[in-house]
Design a protein that fits this description.
Order of helices and strands of chain B: EEEEEEEEEEE
Number of strands of chain A: 11
Helix content of chain A: under 10%
Shape of chain B: globular
Number of helices of chain B: 0
Largest interface: A-B, 28 and 22 residues
Radius of gyration of chain B: 13 Å
Number of strands of chain B: 11
Helix content of chain B: under 10%
Oligomer: heterodimer
Shape of chain A: globular
């Protein structure tokens, strides 16, 4: 158990709906990362936070995606107007500078 | 551009050694990592190596780094059925601060009894 929890574990939604995922790292994790993993691929970086500041965003993060970490603790990732291509595992990881990142179990999104 | 490549499959017999290979492109990567992912689970960091090292050993795991060829390998000694999983190689192109890891597609290791 890495101490990083993600909710929900699974989400099925209809195309066009909005979805929101939550990640709770442990309190020592001032860094928080979001990755997306599709079937047969490795995780792809989406964005990361240092405390509450969003420091980097990937080109993969279209304007339908938004992430927040309002108090520097938990984070949410929202996808608006979901598309079938958004179906993937969304992974969150917590860590500190120059130390390993601890991954949660992920949220599997299926868009039907 | 940045890219990490791995062979997709490896099959070994229980008790044999497994060697998983990886090539990366960013010579500025300060750390290189091996992660393990079991079915339906998140990623578990197995080991990592600093770019000024050639080798790192941790119990049954040995990591070899050839910085000139940008080649990384993971050797698992005395492979067990519990080692069956997907193994990902990853580099940290922003100089080791662990943001923005670039992962390979993963090597699926199957261990036959």
């Amino acid at each position: 158990d890495t101490g990083v929890s993600q909710n929900p574990r699974h989400k099925i939604t209809k195309r066009g709906q909005n979805v929101t995922f939550r990640c709770d790292p442990i309190s020592e994790h001032n860094r928080l990362y979001w990755y997306r993993q599709t079937l047969g691929q490795g995780p792809e970086f989406l964005t990361y936070f240092q405390n509450e500041a969003q420091l980097e965003k990937s080109r993969l993060l279209s304007d339908r995606f938004s992430a927040e970490r309002p108090k520097g603790s938990f984070s949410t990732l929202e996808i608006q107007r979901t598309e079938q291509g958004d179906s993937a595992m969304y992974l969150c990881a917590g860590g500190r500078e120059n130390t390993e990142a601890f991954f949660g179990q992920g949220t599997r999104l299926t868009v039907v | 551009g940045e890219d990490v490549e791995q062979s997709l499959f490896l099959s070994v017999r229980e008790g044999d050694s497994s060697v998983i290979n990886c090539t990366y492109t960013d010579s500025s990567s300060t750390y290189l990592y091996w992660y393990k992912q079991e079915p339906g689970a998140g990623l578990q960091l197995l080991t990592y190596i600093f770019s000024n090292m050639d080798m790192k050993q941790d119990q049954r795991l040995t990591v070899l780094l050839n910085k000139k060829d940008k080649h990384l390998s993971l050797r698992i000694a005395d492979t067990q059925t519990g080692d069956s999983a997907i193994y990902f190689c990853a580099e940290s192109p922003d100089g080791g601060s662990q943001g923005n890891l670039i992962f390979g597609k993963g090597t699926k290791l199957s261990v036959k009894p």
